[in-house]
Predict the structure.
Amino acid sequence: MSEDVFREIDRPWRLWASAIVVGVLAFGCLSGFVILPVIQGYQAGIDPYTAICRSLGILPGSPAARQPVSTAPAAPVSQVSWGPSLIARLNKPDAARGQEIAASVCAACHGEKGLTADPAQFPNMAGQSAFAIYKQLHDYKSGARANEIMQPVVADLTDEQMADVAAHFAALQQARWEQTWVRAASPQVETIVRTGDSARGLPACESCHNPRSGGPIETPVLFAQTKEYLALQMQAFKSGSRKNDLYRRMRSISEKLTDSEIDQLAQYYFEQR
Amino acid sequence: MAARTEHEVLATELRWTIAVVASVALISLAILWAGLVHFINPPSNLETIDPTKVHLSPEFTEANLGTRVDEGGRVTTRIVTAQFAFIPPCVVVPADEPVTLRLVSPDVIHGVLVTGTNVNTMVVPGYVSQVHTVFQKTGDLLMPCHEYCGIGHSQMWSTVRVVPKAEFKPGPDGRALCEKP
Ligand SMILES: [Cu+2]
C-alpha cells in the first residue's frame, strides 16, 4: 500500500482523536472553571461571577471569610530556633575554645573525657549530639529548663561558647551506635524501642533517638547515658517538671510510659555501649 | 495476537481509545463528585510562617493550641503536626457549627484527614493550612497523619472529639479542652 492510502485511512482517525482531546480539555475547563466554582461558590454564598474569577486566579481566593485572629501571648517552652547560622556554627566550631571551656568549667562534673565523675548525679557528655547539648545549655540559660547546678554554670556563656563546647563533647568518642545491640530483657521494651506501640500512639524511641533516623535535630543520643539520668529525665517529662521539649514530644511520650517501663528503658539504653 | 489487516489495527486502536476516554471521564466525574457532594476542594488560604520559629510564634505557642472560641463566637482549632505527634493529641469541637482548623508543621510534610468528614489537607512546613468545616457526626473521630513523615509515622494519630452543641463548654478564656476519656 502506498503512503497516500495510509493517509486516507488515517484522516478520520486523526480528526476524531483531535476532537476527543479538545473535548476532554473543554470538559476539564468547564468543570474546573465553571461547574465546581459556581456550585461550590453558591454553597459558600459567593456569586457565580466572583467564583469564576477566583477559580481563574483573577480575583484573590483568600480570605473568603475573616481569618481568625489570635491574641494569645507567646509563651515558648524553649527559645532555641534552628536557624542556618546556628547550624553552621555547630558544624564549624572553634575547637580550641570548646576544649578549653570543657576542661576548665565542665570537667569537674562531666569528666575530662565527657564521662561522668558520678553517675548518680551527672550525665555523660561524650558522643552526645552537639545540637542536643547546645539546646540544653541554651535552655538552662534562658530558664526554659530549670536546674540549680547547671543554670549558674551556663549563665556567663555566650551562644558561640555554648556551640563550641557542645561540639567539643560531641566529637569525643563518636559513632558509639555502630556497636552491637544488646537485647532488652523484656520483649515489650524491645518493641517500644524498635517499632513503637500504635494503640497507645507511642512512636518507637529509635524513630527519633537513632542518630540516623532523621528525627528532630535536637534529639539527644541515649546510648551509654547513665541509667539514673535517663530514668530521672523521663520521670521529669512525665510529671511536667521538665518541659523544655519542643511540641511536647517527650512529655506526651513519657506520660504514656509506666514507671516500670521507664526503668527498663533506662536500663536498656544504659546497656548499649 | 498479531494484527493482520489494517482493519484489525483500527479496531484495536478504537477499543483502546474508548478505554482511555472512559477512564479519563470516570476520573473527572469522581473529582466532580468529590467536589460537589463531599465538598472537597483545594485550600484557598495562602499564609506563610517560619517553620523554625513555630514554637516562638504567639498563635502556635503551646498554651494556645487546641480549640478556642473568640469574642465573635467563632470556633478555631489550632494544631501543630510534628514528628510524630499532633499537639494537642485530642481536640474537642462542637457539632453543627462552623469550625476553622489551622495547622502548621515545624519539620516535614504531614497530611491530615478526619475520618468520615471532608477534612483532608497536607501540612507543609512554611505554610498555615486552613480548613473550614462543619462536623455533623458526634463522637471520637480518628485523625491520622496520612503523609509519610518518618519512621514514627504509623504511630502519628490523634482524636477529634465532636460533642453536641449543648455539651461544648469552653472555659472563661474561650479554650475548650478534651477531657480524658
Ligand atoms: Cu506525620
Summary: The CA atoms of residues 29 and 96 of chain A lie 65 Å apart. The pocket of copper (II) ion is lined by residues B 81, 110, 145, 149, 153, 156 (CB under 6 Å).
